[in-house]
Each structure stands twice: as structure tokens, then as C-alpha cells.
């Protein structure tokens, strides 16, 4: 096997997998290095006790919090990265998210690109990941250049009833865009069997549009692409001037290997990409590779989320529940008068609301302590919602390494006040749908273990000023000629939408730039 490639891509998730797929069509020789292996297809993929309670697919890794306490982060090192277990809710950021927005806890900074400039890659990502959706339903949405490739996943009766109630009350519910291979017009041809175990679970029948199924597997038959699994990149080395990456150092089992690429694209996820750069410190880059600005690892973001279990009068017989979203509180109300019934004035953007997949475990965990319902009733009548508020990029929310090379993640959630306001609006909204809260939890605020690392973003943000950003507008490191970062770490702000579609769209954008550069 050669050790020199046109491009070496590190990480095969939403960013790296999508970028490798974009580059591959050029015929250039690509090496894709993935720390994990393929996730095994087994019946346990769908077993909630194995997956959610037993953390069957969470990789054993130890990080340390700001106080130096060790914890096992809820991370997933597989071909496809976190998308192997993601919910495949594939929404776009709103146009306002690309500009500067005032929040109660500070500013959400502007991106170096506008929504209109970024939009063509959203359309490409929606087509690549076969998103089911309907543009135009949600008034907070920006313009779109292409319709979705597939119609939205239809609401089942109870969800349709909730949508109708909320629509009549003026909340503009919409069909949640989902990357699931469900063909409702032709059920026998449909891969997806509507089991609704996307979020948190791998898909046994490969009907979820994850980066493994959509981006990486189609490359395996190509002669110009080499995938190495169980290949952890530990360090990047540069030439004597520190201007280009000359060696990618890899640990495979007990062996240490070296690879070379004309271009090197780091996409190991927001935390691990920062780790690789910080570990690659040298005389030329004493604070870490590409870190003259001191920004590598800083501005870590996740999302401020609250899970709520509500219940109504009727039994909930829904199979596939994650079909509904509400963005009525996503943007600030500049008139400071909420147009929504019973809503309070809204100076700040509060965030988004979506239905969760049906989960008896969640229902029992959240509702039982409140003593609202008996256990069988909870499972029969519960409807789960997730409320998501934007988390701001604080410089002190950051990844660092200690002298022993161990990873520390310092994180304090922002915008708790806005999350509380969103909950208040949500309670009022629920009353219009004849639903009542039975219990809630705020997983991200509760600790770093799971939710606070699921939507990780922002540790190598892109921008025009090398003093305040790590990457330029093409996601090339300001300080190096051939190093790119193409995972969720490029985001200067996270909005209140899952980062996956934005990461995929950006990876296609960066991939197309690289195709032109390598030509
Ligand atoms: C349970 C769960 C549900 C989610 N649901 C949604 C959702 O519905 N919608 C949404 O928008 N987002 C969702 N997300 C978040 C979404 O999956 C991530 O935002 C997205 O995958 C980030 O892409 P990435 O490329 O930055 O990282 P990843 O997709 O995680 O890819 C990083 C890859 O790099 C590999 N890697 C790490 N270190 C190294 C190394 N040193 N060398 C080689 N390889 C390395 C990892 O194994 C991994 O394969 C969810 C996440 C989780 C955990």
C-alpha cells in the first residue's frame, strides 16, 4: 500500500465521510482514516435496554471536566461517526443564524458567509442524504433553491391532531425534515419500517441516511479510495517552516504508521479535531498546530435542550412520532409582543421544539417521580418533546490537554434563562393541544456525559480574521497551506438546530473547493 495520497481525510462522520464522498468523484487518490470500525448489525441495535441503558455503542474513552474529574463522554467512534446513532433530523439553520444575534447571555457571532451564499450546499446535502421534508411550511425558514427530494414523513393520527390544534392556534407546526429511507407511496419498496428508533440507535436495516450508509459504503468499491478502520490519528507533523502538513501519524493496534497527503482534512469531530491539533504542537506551532490565535479548542458549543413528557386523554398509538417541529419561538420578536396566544414578550430568540421518538424509558423516567400517572398509563399516553435553545460560544468552554496528554473539556451552559422562557411558552402552547406536562429534564445541563457532547461544535471556527478564527472561509487553517478542518468544529455559532445537515453541507462545499484545488 502506498503511503502518499492526494488527500488524507481523518474521520468518516458527517463531515469527513461526506467530504470523502465529494472528493472521490474527482478520481484523486484518497485515504480515509477512521478511528473506529463498522458498527455491527445485530438485533441489539434496536434494544433500548442495551442501547440506551447499557450504552452498548458508546465508545470507552475518558475525558476530564474543568475540575479534573474523569467522565466517559457519550461518543461513538464508528465508520459514520455520531451519525450512526443520530436522530436524522436534518434541518437547516435560519438565515438570521448566519448574522450576529443578541442573546440574554451575550452575542451569537456572525458567520463569514451569509445564508444565501451557503444555501446551494444545503440543497446538495438534502439530496445526498435523501431528506424527506416540505419547504415553505415553517415561516422562520430561509429561501430554498431546490425542493426536497422526497415528500415529508406523514404524521400519524395523534401527531396530526396535535399539528391541527397548534396550526389553528397560530403556531405554524411543520413536518420535521428527516433522513430516513421511507417510501410511503410504495411500502414494499421502503427500507424504513417506521420503527422510530433513529435517535440514539443504529439502524439495523440501514434505512437511516447516516454517513456510513450514504457516504462511505458507496466508496468502498472505488479504486481511488482507501479506507483504514481502527486507525487513530495521533499527530500531524509539518515541514521545517511549519507551513504544510507532511506526515499524518496513525496508531493502528500496537503499530505506528505514517501517511502523506497533498491535502490533509481533519474531521474527527469538534472535540477530537481540537485534540489532534493541540497534540501536534511543535517548535513552529508551540501552542498547537494552527493555533497562533489561541482559538483551537475554544468556543465549544452544544445545545441547551430540555426533554419533556406530556400526556393527553387519548392512548398514544403512534409508531413513528418524530415528524413534527415548531419554530414559533425560534426568532426574537422585535416588536417584543408575542403573536402567540398567551405568549409573553420575546426580546430573545428562544429556540425550537420537536416531537421525540416514542420512548417508554423516557416516559417512565420523567413522569414517574412526579407521580402524575400510574406506570402503564404513562407508557400509553405519553408524548415526548425536545426543546432546544442556542448555546453561545464562550472562550472558556474549551478543550485542553494536560501535561500527560489527557483531554479536558471545560463547559458551562449558556442561555439558561432563554431555555426557561421557551419552556414557559411551550407550556402555554401545549394547552392548545390538550396536553399536560408530566415531567421534564435538562440533559445537557445535567452533565457532560451524553447530551452535552452529542451536538458538539465550534472548536476551530472559520472566519476572515486569523486573530479570532482558526480557519479561513474555505475551512483551510489560516497558518497552513494544506490543512483543512471539515467537521462541526468550523461553526462560529450553533443556532438551535442539530448540526448534522450544516456539517454535511459545509463538507460538500469544502470538498468542491478541494476538487478545484487539486485539479
Ligand atoms: C444520539 C445522537 C443523536 C443525534 N441526533 C441528531 C439529529 O437528529 N440531527 C442533527 O443534526 N444532529 C444530531 N446529532 C449530532 C450529529 O450526529 C453530529 O452533529 C454530527 O455527526 C457531527 O459530525 P462530525 O463530522 O463533526 O463528527 P462525527 O460525525 O462524530 O465524525 C467524527 C469521526 O471522526 C472519528 N475520529 C475521532 N477521532 C479520530 C482520530 N483521532 N483519528 C481518526 N478518526 C477519528 C470518529 O470515530 C468519527 O467517526 C446527534 C448526535 C447523537 C450522539
Account of the 3D structure:
The chain is α+β, with helices and mostly antiparallel strands and 519 residues long. It contains twelve helices and 19 strands. It has helices at residues 14-24, 48-53, 115-128, 157-168, 211-216, 270-279, 360-367, 375-381, 416-431, 443-446, 451-454, 500-518, and strands at 4-10, 30-33, 63-64, 70-71, 101-103, 106-108, 174-175, 225-228, 232-238, 245-252, 255-266, 303-311, 324-326, 352-355, 382-390, 398-401, 407-410, 436-441, 483-485. Strands 1, 2, 8, 9, 10, 11 and 19 form a seven-stranded mixed sheet that branches. The chain is globular. The two termini are 23 Å apart. The mean pLDDT is 93. Flavin-adenine dinucleotide binds next to helix 1, strand 9, helix 6 and helix 12.
Question: What shape does the CA trace take?
Answer: globular
Radius of gyration (Å): 22 Å
Low-confidence stretches: none
Are any ligands bound, and if so which?
Answer: flavin-adenine dinucleotide
In round numbers, the mean pLDDT is 93
Structural class: alpha+beta
Helix fraction by DSSP (H/I, runs of at least 4): 10-25%
Q: Tell me the span between the first and last alpha carbons.
A: 23 Å
- Please, how many helices? 12
Number of strands: 19
Largest β-sheet summary: 7 strands, mixed
Q: Strand portion, in percent?
A: 15-25%
Amino acid at each position: 500500500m502506498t503511503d502518499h495520497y492526494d488527500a488524507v481525510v481523518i474521520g468518516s462522520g458527517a463531515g469527513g465521510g461526506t467530504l470523502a464522498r465529494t472528493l472521490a468523484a474527482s478520481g484523486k487518490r484518497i485515504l480515509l482514516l477512521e478511528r473506529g470500525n463498522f458498527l455491527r448489525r445485530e438485533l441489539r441495535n434496536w434494544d433500548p435496554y442495551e442501547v440506551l441503558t447499557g450504552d452498548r455503542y458508546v465508545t470507552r474513552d475518558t475525558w476530564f471536566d474543568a475540575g479534573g474529574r474523569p467522565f466517559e463522554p457519550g461518543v461513538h467512534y464508528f465508520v459514520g461517526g455520531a451519525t450512526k446513532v443520530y436522530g436524522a433530523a436534518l434541518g437547516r439553520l435560519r438565515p438570521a443564524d448566519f448574522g450576529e444575534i443578541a442573546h440574554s447571555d451575550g452575542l451569537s457571532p456572525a458567520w463569514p458567509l451569509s445564508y444565501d451564499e451557503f444555501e446551494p450546499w444545503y440543497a446538495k446535502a438534502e439530496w445526498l442524504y435523501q431528506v424527506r421534508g416540505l419547504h415553505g411550511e415553517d415561516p422562520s425558514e430561509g429561501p430554498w433553491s431546490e425542493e426536497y427530494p422526497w415528500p415529508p414523513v406523514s404524521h400519524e393520527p395523534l401527531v396530526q391532531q396535535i399539528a391541527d390544534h397548534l396550526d389553528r392556534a397560530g403556531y405554524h407546526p411543520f413536518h420535521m425534515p428527516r433522513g430516513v429511507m421511507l417510501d410511503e407511496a410504495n411500502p414494499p419498496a421502503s427500507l424504513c419500517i417506521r420503527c422510530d428508533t433513529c435517535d440514539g440507535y443504529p439502524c439495523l436495516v440501514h434505512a437511516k441516511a447516516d454517513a456510513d450508509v450514504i457516504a462511505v459504503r458507496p466508496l468502498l468499491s472505488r479504486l481511488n479510495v482507501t479506507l483504514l478502520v481502527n486507525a487513530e490519528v495521533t499527530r500531524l507533523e509539518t515541514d521545517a517552516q511549519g507551513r504544510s502538513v507532511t506526515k499524518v501519524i496513525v496508531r493502528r493496534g500496537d503499530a505506528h504508521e505514517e501517511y502523506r497527503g497533498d491535502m490533509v482534512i481533519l474531521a474527527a469531530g469538534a472535540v477530537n479535531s481540537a485534540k489532534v491539533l493541540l497534540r501536534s504542537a511543535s517548535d513552529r506551532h508551540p501552542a498547537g498546530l494552527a493555533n497562533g490565535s489561541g482559538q483551537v479548542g475554544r468556543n465549544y458549543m452544544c445545545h441547551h435542550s430540555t426533554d419533556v413528557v406530556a400526556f393527553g386523554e387519548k392512548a398514544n398509538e403512534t409508531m413513528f412520532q418524530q415528524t413534527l417541529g415548531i419554530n414559533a419561538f425560534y426568532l426574537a420578536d422585535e416588536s417584543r409582543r408575542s403573536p402567540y396566544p398567551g405568549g409573553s414578550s420575546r426580546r430573545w430568540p428562544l429556540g425550537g421544539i420537536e416531537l421525540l421518538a416514542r420512548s417508554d424509558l423516557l416516559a417512565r423516567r420523567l413522569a414517574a417521580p412526579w407521580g402524575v400517572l400510574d406506570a402503564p398509563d404513562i407508557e400509553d399516553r405519553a408524548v415526548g418533546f425536545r426543546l432546544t435553545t442556542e448555546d453561545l460560544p464562550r472562550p472558556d468552554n474549551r478543550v485542553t490537554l494536560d501535561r500527560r496528554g489527557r483531554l479536558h473539556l471545560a463547559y458551562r451552559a449558556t442561555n439558561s434563562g432563554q431555555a426557561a422562557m421557551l419552556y414557559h411558552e411551550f407550556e402555554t402552547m401545549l394547552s392548545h393541544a390538550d396536553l399536560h406536562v408530566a415531567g421534564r429534564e435538562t440533559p445537557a445541563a445535567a452533565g457532560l456525559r451524553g447530551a452535552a457532547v452529542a451536538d458538539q461544535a465550534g472548536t476551530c471556527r472559520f472566519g476572515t480574521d486569523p486573530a479570532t478564527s482558526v480557519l479561513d472561509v474555505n475551512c483551510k487553517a489560516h497558518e497552513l497551506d494544506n490543512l483543512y478542518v471539515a467537521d462541526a468544529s468550523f461553526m462560529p455559532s450553533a443556532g438551535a438546530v442539530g448540526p448534522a445537515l450544516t456539517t454535511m453541507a459545509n463538507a460538500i462545499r469544502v470538498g468542491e473547493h478541494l476538487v478545484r484545488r487539486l485539479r
